[in-house]
Amino acid sequence: MGSTLASYFTGYDSDRLAQFYIKDMTPDMPVCKNYYRVTDREVFKAALFTFSCRPVGGRIEPDFSGKQSSAAKKDTKSGNSKNRALRMIVRNTVWNLSRFTKKGFQKWVDEFSPDAVLVQPGDFGYILKLATKISKKRRIPLIIHQSESYYLKPYYSKRLSYLLYRLNFKRNFEKMMKRASACIYLCDALQRDYGKIFDVPSVTIYKSTDIIPKAHEVADTNNGFRCIYGGNLGEAVGRAEPLCEIGKAIKKCGGVIDVYTSSKGEHLRELNDENGIVLHGAVSSDELIKKTQHSDFVLHIENQSKEHITDLEYAFSTKIADMLACGRPAIIYGSAEIAGIKYFADNDLGLVIEKKEDLYPEIKNLVDDPERQNEYVGRAIKFAKENHDPKKNSEKTKKLIKKVCEK
Fold it and tell me: According to CATH, what is the number of the domain 2-208+389-406?
C-alpha cells in the first residue's frame, strides 16, 4: 500500500510527513523523508535478551536512487494457515511487552510533533493500538485509511487460538474506530459496508496514477497481438490457473500474453508458449508501464473459487488505476463479486469475462471490433481523470486533513 498512500500526498510538503513502519526494508518514496522503523526481529530479540541495553528500532534513511524494484516483491501467503492465529497472538503479546515506545520512538514523535495520525490497518492489532494511543495522548485527530476488510471477514475457524486472536483484533479495531475523526476508503464497497457498522465521517479516494495516456493503436490481428499481465502469481493467490485458461483462449485468437512477475514455483509450469504465455521475470513499475503501453491489451485476473471470492470481495487492485490510464483495452477474467472487477463491469470500462467457456468467443469478438476497443479506452481514460488523478486525490486528502484538524 506504500504507493497508494504516497499518491494521496502528491505535492504535499515532505517535511510535514513522518512515517513509522515495521517491515524490514528501506523506504524509497520521496513523498516522505522522515522514517522510523521497528522490526519484528528487533522486538523479539529484545524480549529474549531482557537485560540488553541495545536500542530497539531507530530512524531510517530512505533510498531514492531508484535501484529498488517495487515489482520484485516476495510472494504473500494466505492468512488462513492453521498456525497463523497463534503466531499473531505471540506477536501481539511480545510487541505489547516491548519498551521501544519509551525511548527513541517517543523522542522521534515529540520532535516531529504531529497534528494528526493516519494509520493503515492491517490484521496486526498492536499497530491499531499504538495509533490510537498516540492520538489520545497528544489529543490529535486519528484518520483511518481503510483498504482491507479484515474486520468485516466472517470467522472461518472455531479453534481457540483463532477466536482469541480475532477477539483481540476486533477489540483494538473498535477502539480505534471509536477514536477516529475520519476514514479514507479505497473503494465504495468498503465505505458502504464499514459505514453500516461505524458512524465515522468518510470519503472514498481511489488509488492515483501518474500515467499519461498514449493514443490507442488498434491491434493488427493479421500479424498477431500481444497482451500483458504483471503482478503476484504466488501459489496462495491462485492466479496461475485462470491465467493459463485465458492464455489458451488468447492463443486460439492469434495472440500471446507477456507475463512479468517475481513469482517462481512448480505451480507455474503450465505458463508456457504452448498455452499462449511468455513468462518473464520482474521489472520495475516504470518499465512495466512502458511495456504495457506497447502492448495491445492489458489483463487482470482473479481466481474464482468460492474461497478466493470470499477473501477478495473487497479487493481493489492497485493496478486498476494504471490499467485505466494506459490507453489499452482491458480484458478482465474473474468474478464481478470482487470490488475491483465490479468497478470495470458496472462502468463498462473493459471486457469482463466470468465464465471459462466465454473466453474465446468474447475475446475474439473484441479483437475483431476496433470501435469497441476505442470505446473501452475512452471510458477508461475518462474514469482515470475523474477518480484516479493524483492532483485531485491529493487535494481531497489535504481537504480532509485540514477539516479534522480544524475541528
Answer: 3.40.50
